[in-house]
């Protein structure tokens, strides 16, 4: 990663929602400030946890207990704020990540400085959000719009593709804890970028997760690499592995 930063190649992070849920936003925000993050990609659940951190200072609920009575995911504020932001983003032709980041920055939420999307928006670091319709609690909220959700998420897919082009020649893509959605997004982005005539060689990928999963292993650490790329898979709990990664990066001197 040090070589990528010195060579001004992209360093992209794909985040599963659990990374946010376990409280690692401050670690990643610190890496933004130190020049180690060129862009972020999240799944749909990521914006839910990130919003709730900004709004209430904590996130998550007891799914096993709440789902028995049909109460899981029924928080009014989460659905209202996020769906309003997504609708506004669609009306203005911007992506889902930018729309939510802008909403958080312009809010009076007491913990908004702990938001990945908000702090990335303030630093002009692109964030893309890749929604799978029906997987997130905000999709069954009365304000949810399939048209707005699809439009803003598709906008973000093509933004992510533009970010992936910058991996060529020494960039790094790190998948932190997404077992399905982001590995599939990364594979399709690599295919699309190459189909459009861009060279995509000589980059490195790494997966960090607490289990070994098929899609990250194949679609991040093996299949997209080309002839000269390298892929790695690290197994361990996010609360241990990601701070260790950050500590290792912070020992590198200077900025690009």
Short description:
By secondary structure, the protein is of the alpha/beta class. It has twelve helices and six strands.
Description:
The chain is α/β, with parallel strands linked by helices. The chain has one domain (2-250): Deoxyhypusine Synthase (3-Layer(aba) Sandwich), CATH 3.40.910.10. Helices cover 48% and strands 12% of the residues. The chain has a six-stranded parallel sheet with strand order 3-2-1-4-5-6, sandwiched between helices. α7 (96-105) packs across α8 and α9 (146-164) crosses α10 (181-195). The longest helix has 19 residues, at 146-164. The chain is globular. It starts with a helix and ends in a 6-residue tail after the last helix.
Note the topology.
Layout: H1 2-6, E1 11-15, H2 17-21, H3 25-33, E2 39-43, H4 44-56, H5 63-66, H6 76-92, H7 96-105, H8 116-122, E3 127-130, H9 146-164, E4 172-176, H10 181-195, E5 204-209, H11 214-219, E6 230-235, H12 238-250
Parallel strand pairs: 1-2, 1-4, 2-3, 4-5, 5-6
Helix pairs in contact: 6-7, 6-9, 7-8, 9-10
